[in-house]
Specification:
By secondary structure, the protein is an all-alpha fold. It has nine helices and two strands. Helices cover about 65% and strands about 0% of the residues. Helix 5 runs antiparallel to helix 7 and helix 8 crosses helix 9 (about 235-265).
Length: about 270
């Protein structure tokens, strides 16, 4: 699930001047981004109709698109400033507004203004997170090169996934056991996720994933297994993924500390011999 995210927005950084004339290859990534935006809007509609499972799956679909459009833009050499701005706007809707509305309509609307404030804080944190990412893209990032391999705070797609964890776990449970009665705790959880998004704590980035030069068949087999699990047991699969991501957040601190110590440790002094 990626504002960076979750994502591969780094692929939207301009690396070449656009050529004049219509080019279909430059349209395809932006069309995918619009599909993700449409999925976020449709998720809100399904939440209004109380179709919670469809609403959550539409946000998951938007997250999958978010990991594809940037990679496709880089592959087609179709990166553009327009695509970067469009991607951020789509991410704000799909991973800021839509998750907040889904959780509000599912569990927090009975809390009155308090429940709405929790969702508002989450949406504003998502906007701030995306704005900070855009302002620190490329050479504008003041951090050293090794630190740029970490996200600063939880990315917007990851924050959306964490915010939706209560309803995902609820959908994985039998119908006789519902969790929306825990509305106060769910509201607090939304605010905690919002704080993690705007914080400066380091989190794992896709830049740290180094795949070996292995045959494509095993990778495609793994993708097929994941897709099958997502189709046949979506809520169990998403619960496991969300829990694993939550566990990785404190682990990121440990990895960051090790990398920082390795890169900032003074070089050993050389002893001259005569």
């Amino acid at each position: 699930m990626n504002d960076q995210t979750s994502g591969l927005e780094e692929y939207f950084i301009d690396d070449e001047k656009p050529k004049p004339g219509f080019q279909l290859r430059r349209l395809i990534p932006n069309f995918l981004t619009l599909c993700g935006l449409a999925a976020g809007m449709l998720a809100i509609q399904k939440a209004v109709l109380q179709q919670w499972d469809t609403a959550v799956l539409l946000i998951v679909f938007a997250a999958i698109i978010d990991t594809m459009d940037g990679a496709l833009a880089r592959l087609l050499r179709a990166t553009s400033k327009f695509g970067a701005e469009l991607d951020s706007l789509a991410d704000f809707l799909s991973f800021g507004v839509a998750p907040g509305m889904v959780i509000y309509l599912w569990a927090l609307n009975d809390m009155g203004p308090v429940g709405w404030i929790a969702c508002l804080i989450f949406a504003m944190a998502s906007a701030l997170r995306l704005a900070r990412f855009n302002s620190m893209s490329g050479e504008a990032d003041p951090r050293p090169e090794w630190a740029r391999k970490f996200f600063m705070g939880v990315p917007a797609p990851g924050g959306a996934g964490l915010a939706l964890m209560p309803i995902i776990i609820n959908l994985a449970l039998p119908e006789s056991r519902q969790l929306n009665f825990l509305a106060p705790l769910i509201g607090v959880w939304m605010i905690i996720v919002a704080v993690m998004m705007v914080s400066r704590m380091p989190t794992m980035s896709s830049k740290q994933i180094k795949l070996p030069r292995a045959p494509m068949v095993p990778l495609l087999l793994f993708a097929a297994i994941f897709l099958a699990l997502l189709i046949y047991i979506p809520w169990v699969t998403l619960s496991i993924i969300g829990t694993a991501y939550a566990v990785m957040i404190p682990l990121s601190w440990h990895v960051y500390a090790k990398v920082k110590a390795r890169n900032e440790s003074p070089a050993p002094a050389t002893v001259e011999t005569f």
